[in-house]
Records
---
Amino acid sequence: MNNKILKYLKEYLIITIGCLFYSVSINYFFISNHLAEGGVAGICLILYYLFKFPVGITYFVINIPLLVIGWKLVGKDFLFKTLYGTTCLSIMIDLTQNLKGPSNDTMLGAIYGGLLVGIGLGLIFVVNGSTGGTDVIARILNRFFDIPIGKTMFLMDVLILGVAAIFFGKEVVMYTLIAMLIVSKAIDFFQDGHTKSKGVTIMSAKSEEIKNRIMEETGRGTTIIKGEGGYTRKDMDLLYCVVSKFELPKVKMIVKEVDTYAFLTVSDVSEVWGEGFKSLHSNKK
């Protein structure tokens, strides 16, 4: 079996696991505690609470026209993954519908429900998958009207939650907003938080010694940037290096030991590709 097939099998397995987490959360936390949701899932929950329409089937039916419309508007790989993710999630929601976990504390339901949905969607997004819904709508509107995808998804979530507030009260929506915030944070963690690094810029008269110690003691390379002091007008070397968040204390200690008059800035770097970090070769992702 070649590497390409293994790669696809791995990606679709991850989408399947993500759909399982998402479906369990919908039934065990959201439906059990009468919480709302954003996107197409939110529409399905409103219809379930009002008319007892099965969530899984409703989710699939709503997505059919969206996938038909988006057939030529998104890439083939994304479309196949979206079709699989939509079908898989719809089936799993129905298969896990007997999982109920009503709690006397709705806040806990929102927290843990949001966390599990975030983990599920995070896994799916990591392999460029999708579960359909507002994601497809946002891409269509972006293609025809140049409306930003993020803005479209946000406005649709607000609209759906507004409808939920009318039928079920503002408290349900307030708890749901907490869950959605946790979902967002969990997705961010999966996309770049677990690999987040630090970019360090060092200005020092002893830049050569600092550079050598950083390379020797952390194994990280540095880039020398030629600069000039704004006040002294003297030439100086600026050092720039990217390290993991666990290596940052070591770099700060080196700078402190070598030059207590150094000037150091640290910034977040969400993604790093290249030697020592994630490989740029597609077959090694």
---
Amino acid sequence: MLARGDLGVILRFYRTVHGMNQTALSDLLGYDKTTISALELGKRSVNDVASRRRIAALLRLPAHVLGVTDSSDADHHALLQFGESAVRLAEMARQSGHASEAVAELWPLVARLEARLQDGHVERGTLRLLARARVGLGVALGNVLPEERLPTAARWTSRALQIARHFHDPGFTSYVLRMHGNELRKAGLRGAAVERLRRAAALAPDRDGRAAVLPLLARAAGEARRGDLFDAVTRETGRLLDDTDHTSLFNPYSLHEIRLRGLVATDRVSAAVRLAEDGPPPSTTAAPQWRVIASVTAGRVRLLAGDRGRAAATLRQAVDEAHRQRLPHQIQRVLRTTGDGRLPDVRERAEHALAQLRAEMAA
């Protein structure tokens, strides 16, 4: 899609990932809104090289993405070095609670690599970097998109899997399957998510690789209401905790939240309530978005236990932080939690926050 140089497609995608409307884009590019609309609909075109090069520069894209030859892009090694840095920076941004910035960092790289692929350059390094960039873009989009648009994130990670299968590298394939499986779970495709994540665990080359998969598999198994699988996986994560380096996902804090949510999903509310009162202290290794995820889960458990006061306080805090971090999916979890009418003020707060995020992302 991005590789074919379709200016209308590129402009629409740019607005989507940056949360811009056509007026804002027209201000950036120096065109009026009517021209932007016509360009996006294919009713007008920009054919002269100078104008296309100017648009590419303003959108922070390599010129050849818009069909303009740029000799600087011929340096394959420079491209790989730039790409590796972009992927690492995007991952750091996402883990620190700035998923929107990660999307902005990755989508020009994906466009650049896909354009190179479209031109017939299929170097192994290019393909591997493209797979990682697609994964990163999909995962970042999975943080910033509302639930009804999460299949978009899963499609990007699926496109990474198409490449990974050609490498015959179990570790790399495990990594891509892990990320794709989690995006399928978030999109509500729980059976497919469990299947991908089980394969990722089976292909993991070492203990650390398996530890990276198991929390996501436990969550998918819980949401799929597969209690036996959920229990087996959480037991294994418990055994690995003392022998494996902790990460932003694999640590007592995050695993506690996953256990809580899985117990609720598999109809063991009493066990979840007991566990909620005996959890580990907040971990400094937990990524900022995990604070929000854990707060929503804790609020839900407290509400199920009948503790409305603490539940309301926890969920209000979760809504405010989710709004600040631009995490619409977590606000939608709060809306489901408060859907029975017991916390109308929290629900109203969540509806307002979600409406604001949607307005910011509106086309």
